[in-house]
Amino acid sequence: MAIPIRLPAISSDFESGTILEWHKSIGDPIEAGEVLFDLETDKAVIEVESPAAGTLGQILFPDGSSDIPVDTVVAVLLGHGESADDIPDFETIDSRGGPEPGGAPVAVAAEEDAGVTNPVQTAADGSRILASPLARRLAAQLDVELSGLSGRGPKGRILKADVEEAAGSGPAWTDIPNTNMRKVIARRLAEAKRDMPHFYLTIDCELDALLDSRAQLNAQRVADGTEAKVSVNDFIIKAAALALVDVPAANASWADEAIRRYNTVDISVAVATPNGLITPVVRQADRKPLAAISREVKDLADRAQEGRLLPDEYKGGGFTISNMGMYGIRQFSAIINPPQSCILAVGAGEKRAVVRGDKIAIATVASFTLSVDHRSVDGAVGAEFLQAFRRYIDQPLALLLK
């Protein structure tokens, strides 16, 4: 009996996605658990596995098909002894770029045999070149060899603009198509800035004691044979987590009927990726030693760059840290990550003149700016949080002991 392969519900709020690339072709034998295709969600790229064994009989949505709703049939598996004649007509959605409801599924094989309408070029080694259908058609019209192009799309996918640029017929600008992730980021940030009454509090912290403690800790880790070093950002995450324990009113979010106070300290860490900003979560950061935080952040950041985070690794969190210090940014104000109430913007540490008693001294100082949703966190609460945060930065030994 033919088995429909449906677009899976990756998470409770996932509504539609993009099929970036099929790993199997029509006629391929499939084992249960084998990866069928890469699915781009709003935050990551997920490998979708086959729920059963069989033969891939049809692909309804080829590479690059976007905005496919959850539970839509995207392919069909054939059982033993079955052929394409045994495949029923599965309903798909016309407005999403697929076949019309009740119509015949679109098979990739038909697309590849269509000649001029959408020819498929292959690389010298015989492998299929990853390119959008529009790019393939345009390449055929302009006589452009896809094998010589470097694509700017996800995973090096060749786009229309790449073909236009190679043919010298493109406009004086480049349109980079918005991924699902970029669209969601734009929508959420616009909503946050529009709907949340932001206010900002900035505090300067001296980092010399923290830098000394970090140097001693990393020296000991090298002596112990531990290669990975603890970063300044790891100290900042721990300091913010402990400050939230001291000032739990800052660990909250707004709802019309109530202010939600979180019972755990889960810190979201902003990570820049080629497709946009993502915020993997270090859960119960207040209870983890610095070394554990360091390992977890590195692992999350590496997989975020590859688009391989699972939904539960970047969803949730009660407080966000965004560090632009490594870019030399002295101070900035970040947009709150909804539905959270606070985000801490971290500037670069730099040598500054400070007054100690009646004398001027030189210290390494960084500016920290807290963006706050005034509906759920009052100014006094934000100030108390920053005071607690600065105490931990000033006394980093407490971060090593807790």
Features:
402 residues, alpha+beta, OB fold (Dihydrolipoamide Acetyltransferase, E2P), Chloramphenicol Acetyltransferase, seven-stranded mixed β-sheet, four-stranded antiparallel β-sheet, 10 helices, elongated
Q: What kind of sheet is the major sheet?
A: 7 strands, mixed
Q: According to CATH, what is the class of the largest domain?
A: Alpha Beta
> How many angstroms does the end-to-end distance come to?
59 Å
| H/E element sequence | EEEEEEEEHHHHEHHEEEEEEHHEEEEHH
Helix content: 25-40%
Nearest-angstrom radius of gyration? 26 Å
pLDDT averaged residue by residue: 85
- Name the beta content range: 15-25%
Query: Globular, elongated, flat, extended or rod-shaped: what is the shape?
Result: elongated
At a glance:
This protein folds into two domains: 165 residues, RNA polymerase II/Efflux pump adaptor protein, barrel-sandwich hybrid domain (OB fold (Dihydrolipoamide Acetyltransferase, E2P), Beta Barrel); 205 residues, Chloramphenicol acetyltransferase-like domain (Chloramphenicol Acetyltransferase, 2-Layer Sandwich). Helix content is 28%, strand content 24%. The chain contains ten helices and 19 strands.
Q: What would you say this structure looks like, in words?
A:
This protein is α+β, with helices and mostly antiparallel strands and 402 residues long. It has two domains: 3-167, RNA polymerase II/Efflux pump adaptor protein, barrel-sandwich hybrid domain (OB fold (Dihydrolipoamide Acetyltransferase, E2P), Beta Barrel), CATH 2.40.50; 197-401, Chloramphenicol acetyltransferase-like domain (Chloramphenicol Acetyltransferase, 2-Layer Sandwich), CATH 3.30.559. It has helices at 108-112, 133-142, 160-167, 180-195, 208-223, 232-246, 290-305, 311-314, 379-394, 397-401, and strands at 3-6, 16-22, 29-30, 35-40, 45-49, 54-59, 68-69, 73-78, 198-206, 252-254, 259-261, 267-269, 271-273, 276-278, 281-282, 319-323, 342-346, 350-356, 359-373. Strands 9, 12, 15, 16, 17, 18 and 19 form a seven-stranded mixed β-sheet that branches. A hairpin with a 2-residue loop joins strand 13 (271-273) and strand 14 (276-278). Helix 2 (133-142) runs parallel beside helix 3, helix 6 (232-246) crosses helix 7 and helix 6 crosses helix 9 (379-394). Mean pLDDT is 85; it is low at 91-120.
